[in-house]
Amino acid sequence: MKRRIYWSLCLISLAALLFSTAASLSLYYHFYEQQSQADLRRQCNALSAGALASQDPVNFLREYEPVDREVRITLLDAQGKVLFDSEADEASMENHKNRPEFQQALENGNGEASRVSDTIGISSFYYAVRCGDEMVLRLGRDNQNILGVFLQIFPLDLLSCAVLFVVSVFIARMVTARIVTPLTKAADNLESLQEIGSYDELEPFLLKIRRQNSTIRRQLRELAQDRDTITMILENMQEGLVLLNEDKKILSVNRSALGYLHPADRQPVGKPMVALSRNMELLDAVEEAHRGSSATGILEQGERKLRYFVNPVLAGQAVGGVILLLLDVTEQYKAQKEREDFSANVSHELKTPLTTISGFAEMMKSGMVKEEEEIKDFSSMIYIEAQRLLTLIDDIIRLSRIEEGRQELEEPVQLLQLAKEAASLLEQETEKRNITMEVSGDAITIPGNSTMLYEMIRNLCENAVKYNVDGGRVDVTVQSLNNGYVKLTVKDTGIGIPKKDHERIFERFYRVDKSRSKQTGGTGLGLSIVKHIVERHHGEIHLTSEEGKGCCMEVLLPKSFRI
Q: Rounded mean pLDDT of 127-148?
């Protein structure tokens, strides 16, 4: 732009100089020509008056010495014959009666004409006046003499034009810089146009740019906020998300996806999918999505199971990229397996007492049992198995209710009081087996569900008594901790639990010693119920035990659910 403006100004200056020079020369030439012709007319009239006064015009003219040597003097008679000529021999000159200026002078008293002379072959201007009644005096001047004057000054005129052009070039450079500088500053400082001086004509343009800058800055802020929001959402998603472009390169991958796939390269963005995972099933699904088809399946990553969804991103009819979504379904698989195991265990546990009840009842119905003593024994067995069945059903119902989480947990509960109530309920059993049970600790109140917490304490105490040795001991303590928790401890001197069973002791229907559990009437759901009650109250339960050295159960419950 700067170059175009500069050269445009230079060309305009040059054209203006050439045009003004040509116009001035033309005007000066015509003005000088007019002045020369007027001077020639005055000389001709004066010389005609002198010739008439001299009584001998020819001799007067021969003796006349003109001031202007470039003027040609010719005297003609009334028939056009040349009587005198200052530059040629009049005897050799032709008759001038057909010359326009001669004819005009005879008719009007004066006449003039411009033409190429037949005698000297040069363009000349002629002026003629009637001198008396019988003669015509004519003066002529060569036009080339006028042109010669201008040719003499033409080099000076060209020099002045060149000087003016050089000056114009510098002025054009200054003007160009002055025009372009505000635009250059505006281009270099689009963020602060209000601080740049400019022409009034540029103000509407700059005002529009300022408004657009304001709009762009606002939109950039919104885009940055949206980007940060999207980034925060993606980074905090539990689901793994991977975006690939049309060249099968990774555009984005969130933290969850990296945690699920464990790539060797922790910065896989911009690299092929193989840098993120080498699982052929997943790579084939991504390749299928690049061809336009969706895919889903289960990906096993060690003990973790991931469900993947791979979908193409369509840009019109073409595939512009691929979205890979990873969901951790490990817990769902575990829950499904637990439900299946639970259903199988429930069926088995229910089937055992029902089979016994059905068998004894069938024997009594068929008349196989006739003795009254045998009938009493069979009836007693049916009653025991029926009670066992009812207990099992009650435990299953309680466990289901706890898992549903419908119980209110906001009532104040005094754990020490609940522990004493559970201990008093077991007095008959402890006295029978000579087991000492002691309850002690801090009388502190926590929020929760008293029924559920009582059942938790009762189950722990029952287990401590059932699996204790005769003459053993059970200690129940409630202690307030400084970290915002209350610790309930149930410690016994019983048979203990082998370390190999510690991880499974809280599973449903799991029994360390099945024969002893059957003798004590256990259903295998007691500790599972305890664990669910603890988790429902946002607490933790820990087991410390060795086979033959007793067992210690520690339950940590929060004093407030908002800690």
A: 79
Q: Taking the chain, what is the end-to-end CA distance rounded to the nearest angstrom? A: 71
Contact 447, 409 (CB under 8 A): yes
Task: Say how far apart CA 490 and CA 415 lie, in whole Å.
Answer: 13
Contact 44, 138 (CB under 8 A): yes
- Read off the DSSP letter of residue 499: G
Examine the pLDDT at 437 and tell me if it is beyond 80. yes
As a whole number, mean pLDDT of residues 164-183 equals 74
Facing residues of 551 across strands? 492, 545
Structure tokens at 514: 């099945």
CA dist 472 and 494 (Å) reads: 7
Q: Tell which residue, 264, 259, 289, has the closest CA to residue 275.
A: 264
Q: Which letter does DSSP use for residue 272 in this model? A: B
Whole-number pLDDT of residue 145:
58
Neighbours of 500 (CB within 10 A): 9
Please name the residue that has the structure tokens 């050295």.
549
* Token pair 């170059």 in the structure block, residue: 3
Provide mean pLDDT across the span 244-248. Answer: 87
Write out pLDDT tens, residues 10-54.
777 777 777 777 777 777 777 777 888 888 888 888 888 888 888
| Phi, psi dihedrals of residue 31, rounded to the nearest 5° | -65, -45
Alpha-carbon dihedral angle through residues 56, 57, 60, 65, given to the nearest 10 degrees: 180
Give the three-class secondary structure for 94. coil
In sequence order, the 6+-apart residues with CB closer than 8 A to the CB of 537 are 409, 448, 449, 452, 453, 557, 558
DSSP string, 182-218: HHHHHHHTGGGGGGS---GGGHHHHHHHHHHHHHHHH
Label residues 542-556 b or e (16+ Cβ within 10 Å = b).
eeebeeeebbbbbbb
Contact by Cβ (8 Å): 468, 440: no
The mean per-residue pLDDT over the stretch 474-481 comes to 91
| CA 309 to mean position of chain CA atoms | 26
Are the beta carbons of 551 and 543 closer than 8 angstroms? Answer: yes
What is the C-alpha separation between 117 and 140, in angstroms, rounded? 10
As given in the structure block, the two tokens for residue 129 are 């006046």
Strand partners, 127: 112, 139
Which residue, among 322, 328, 241, 234, has the nearest Cα to 285 in the 3D structure? 322
Count Cα neighbours of 396 within 13 Å in the Cβ-side half-sphere. Answer: 15
Q: How many CB atoms lie within 10 A of CB 422?
A: 22
Can you give the three-state secondary structure of 321-350, one letter per residue?
EEEEEEEECHHHHHHHHHHHHHHHHHHHHH
Phi, psi (5° rounding) for residue 130? -75, 125
How much of the chain, in percent, has pLDDT values that exceed 90? 5
CB 324 within 8 A of CB 287: no
Give the pLDDT score at 343.
60
